[in-house]
Amino acid sequence: MTIGLIGKKIGMSREFIDSGLSIPVTILSIEKGRIINVFTKEKRGYDAIQVGFGKIKTSKLKNQMKGFFAKKSTEPRKFLKEFRVNNISEYKEGNEIGLELFKDDKFVDVKSKTIGKGFAGVMKRHNFSGLRASHGVSVSHRSHGSTGQNQDPGRVFKGKKMAGHMGDKYRTIQNLEIIKSDLENNLIFVKGSVPGSKNSIVLIQKNVKKIKRITSIEKSKKISTINPTVSAKSKTMISEKKETAPKQPVKKEVKN
Questions:
Q1: Count of Cβ atoms closer than 10 Å to residue 41 Cβ
Q2: CB–CB of 164/125 below 8 Å?
Q3: pTM for the complete prediction?
Q4: Angle, vertex CA 104, rays to CA 103 and CA 109, nearest 5
């Protein structure tokens, strides 16, 4: 597992590049994490760090956690996450980790819990076509049909696509492109959608799969170098739209 940060999903917006291209982005608010524990191979059998994220009142903690944070002489943290690392000598207790972690990265993996949909049928949950909508199907138009077997094996196999609880599961979206990061306000803008609703907790990590993909900004720059006239036209169109303000209608005085 690579080192990551825990943040909150604020919502979706869009960012405009110089070429005029509109990119849909998800805005994530990231709080700096503090290293609380450093585990070595001698103690645990592997090198890892324990990082605390978020703030929480001491009154909301259990007695065991109160003693834990008092022993470490740090302020209480809401979330504790363990990350395995290769070079344990680079990390020390009390150090903080922020958005600087992704300054050299173009893509990240984002993990979050999907929106819960409750108990859903097979047509919504698994995209079944349903039974016939004509006569002869007695009030079973949206059912999944038969699920059983013959006398042998005489049971329903595990993993059978049936109606059930939909959503409310942790899912990871890999290789999401970083469009922009605001270090002052601790915000990161990621291209595309992220699982979960607004204000849901997300885990952002360095991408596991090493891919060779051109980012949207690099692609737009490449197009502008090949066709400079197109980029110039788009810039002039944007500037013209800004300059031309809507004219207010002139009121004419009517003489009685």
A1: 10
A2: yes
A3: 0.80
A4: 85
Tens digit of pLDDT for each residue in 22-49?
999 999 999 889 999 999 999 889 999 9
pLDDT exceeds cutoff 80 at 253: no
Share of the chain above pLDDT 70, in %: 88
pLDDT in tens, 195-223: 999 999 999 999 999 888 888 888 888 87
Tell whether the torsion through CA atoms of 154, 157, 158 and 161 is positive or negative.
Answer: negative
- Write down the domain spans for the chain: 117-150+160-166
* Structure tokens belonging to residue 53: 């994220």
CA distances from 188 to 104, 106, 156, 199 (A): 14, 12, 46, 15
**Residue among 80, 55, 77 at smallest CA distance from 66:** 77
Q: Measured between alpha carbons, how far is 206 from 215 in angstroms, rounded to an integer?
A: 16
The residues with which 165 forms a beta bridge, in sequence order, are 119
Question: Between 250 and 17, where is the model more confident?
Answer: 17
Q: Token digits for 47?
A: 């090198």
